[in-house]
Amino acid sequence: MPAAREALLDAALSALSRLPWTAVRMVDVAAAAGVSRQTLYNEFGSKDGLARALVRRAADGYLAGAERALGAHGAAGAGPAELALWTVRAARANDLVKALLTGFWGERLPRPVAAGPSSSVVPAQRRADAALPTPTELLALVRDRAVAALQSSPQDAAELALTCEIALRLALSYAIVPAVHAPSPVGADAVTLVREALARHPAR
Question: Is residue 27 part of a domain?
């Protein structure tokens, strides 16, 4: 039931924006999504399963946005800076994305542990039950996808990997500790800094 599953994930995320995860109740998530509590358990198996699915969706959304940023701006040579912009925006907009990228979960968020071999009959839940990437693994994954999307020749790969990693690490610093000067459009301060820092290592 893809539609019911997405509605339940939306309802859980909405509840998490108001309450710590420990206070989010399955019965309330089901009611907010307009489905039965049994449907919720059929989809996710347990509250821990729901947490894993929420975090998996956050990871997938971040990766999809990164690929869109690279696809839209890579040809113009702005791929690393736009990747940094997306990373800052995604981390500021979604605490789960920020936790995935930094490893800092806090007390309000679910911190799902891989379930091991999943017994779920729902394919999407079997995927959600699998281990999530660590922050280091996620950064390397995005960096490598960026290189694959942006490089114009095999000789570009090493320099481009360095460029993209610098962009991502600068973006993460802004996601964790926003600029102390006057507010600017979300992420614009990070992009300016990234462009200046990468001037010596331009993407070809």
Answer: no
Give the count of domains, the chain: 1
> 129-140 pLDDT, tens per residue?
998 899 999 999
Question: Does residue 71 lie within any of the structural domains?
Answer: yes
User: How does pLDDT run across 175-189, given as a tens digit for each residue?
Assistant: 887 666 544 544 555
Residue 145 CA to residue 44 CA, distance in Å, equals: 30
Sequential DSSP letters for the chain: -HHHHHHHHHHHHHHHHHS-GGG--HHHHHHHHTS-HHHHHHHHSSHHHHHHHHHHHHHHHHHHHHHHHHHHHGGGT-HHHHHHHHHHHHHHH-HHHHHHHH---TTTS------SS---S-HHHHHHHSPPPPHHHHHHHHHHHHHHHH-SSGGGHHHHHHHHHHHHHHHHHHHHS--SSS--STTHHHHHHHHHHGGGS---
In angstroms, the CA 138 to CA 83 distance is 14
